TrEMBL record:
Keywords: Repeat, Signal. Residues 29-131, 138-247 form the Gnk2-homologous domain. Residues 1-26 form the signal peptide. The keyword S-adenosyl-L-methionine does not apply. It comes from Helianthus annuus. This is Gnk2-like domain-containing protein. It holds the Pfam family Stress-antifung. InterPro entries: GNK2, GNK2_sf.
Length: 291
């Protein structure tokens, strides 16, 4: 395990992620965020300027399928940043999620040189160290689980494992633009189990597998939560989620058609998108976190 446990908190948490309106005055709260407190910057420092520059460019660096990365290497205060949207999220929602996360992370981590913030639809991280191609750099992850255990725990775990193993292999086999997989399987008593996994696409196939296995080990082994009917592990380089209702969209949106600029088209609120994005719900999740 590459992040050492220092503390363990357990709280009851109700989490409704329901984004129907892209016009909001304030940014929604993160599901979880983490500011590394061991290295701070000061107002008007090179680091702050580099962070400003990095964040102003980041939204224009969409690789095409919701992955963003930009670094500013001026002076000795390098800033690396990357952001990723869930693979099933439409480009306009993806961009507004990234916008929200940049504002929110600056607000919550006002002077920290490394931070990560997670929304349901996207996550953002920055650091003084490279944030690409390495699963070990950034701390800050969270495990959420549903409080209910399946009545047929062993069969549930078996069915869940085979689904998640398949999704893990599918996601890891993705290319340098997208490492994402979502699907379902039938569990005990004919329930449908839905799963979603995603790695940042800069990871190699092996790194993606390691990251997802690490996520699973937090959930199952570290917190001994096997058999719970829903759960999510957010890590800076990968995400692992499952539950008994479909919390993602079918299919993967096509990349924005744009030859001159990799940035996204302006937001035009499309009525057909409303509602379908409003189903990412984990009820009564306990939060297990180690900081
Ligand atoms: C960095 O700043 C945070 C709050 O802004 C503070 O809690 C922390 O102690 C600081 N770290 C150092 C090393 O000064
Ligand atoms: C930061 O720079 C601005 C403009 O140069 C200046 O007005 C402000 O007083 C500075 N703030 C600090 C805390 O140094
Ligand atoms: C993101 O922020 C930029 C700059 O603040 C703004 O121009 C753009 O419209 C925003 N995009 C979305 C989708 O909110
Ligand atoms: C399960 O996934 C398949 C594709 O693998 C899809 O056709 C089907 O609609 C899904 N079932 C449910 C209940 O969502
Ligand atoms: C990150 O950005 C750099 C510079 O724009 C680019 O060359 C590289 O391909 C990007 N990496 C990924 C994994 O998208
Ligand atoms: C893990 O949880 C199961 C079921 O709740 C329990 O039977 C088992 O003893 C637990 N194992 C550990 C190591 O706590």
């Amino acid at each position: 395990m590459f992040i050492t446990a220092r503390q363990l908190f357990l709280r009851i948490f109700l989490c409704f992620i329901c984004i129907t309106n892209t016009v909001t005055l304030a940014q929604p709260d993160f599901i979880f965020y983490f500011c590394a407190n061991n290295d701070n910057y000061t107002i008007n420092s090179t680091f702050e300027r580099n962070l400003d520059t990095t964040f102003s460019t980041l939204p224009t660096t969409n690789s095409g399928l919701g992955f963003f990365n930009h670094s500013t290497l001026e002076g000795n205060d390098m800033v690396y940043s990357a952001a990723i949207c869930r693979g099933d999220i439409e480009p306009d929602l993806c961009l507004s999620c990234l916008n929200d996360s940049m504002v929110k992370l600056r607000e919550l981590c006002p002077n920290q040189k490394e931070a990560v913030g997670y929304y349901e639809m996207c996550w953002l991280k920055y650091s003084t160290k490279s944030v690409l191609g390495n699963i070990y750099h950034i701390d800050g992850y969270r495990v959420l689980v549903n409080t209910i255990t399946s009545a047929q725990r062993d069969r549930f775990v078996e069915d869940l494992s085979s689904l998640m193993n398949k999704l893990k292999a599918d996601a890891a086999a993705g290319d340098s633009l997208l490492k994402f997989a979502a699907g379902n399987t039938t569990g005990p008593d004919f329930v449908t189990i839905y799963g979603l996994v995603q790695c940042t696409p800069d990871l190699s196939k092996m790194q993606c597998i390691d990251c997802l296995e690490n996520a699973y080990s937090y959930y199952a082994t570290v917190f001994n939560q096997s058999g719970k009917i829903g759960g999510t592990v957010f890590q800076p380089m990968c995400r692992y989620s499952y539950g008994l209702s479909r919390f993602f969209n079918e299919g993967i949106p096509s990349p924005p058609v744009s030859s001159s600029s990799p940035s996204l088209p302006p937001v035009s609120s499309s009525p057909s998108l409303q509602g379908t994005k409003c189903n990412s719900v984990y009820l009564s999740l306990s939060i297990y976190t180690m900081l």
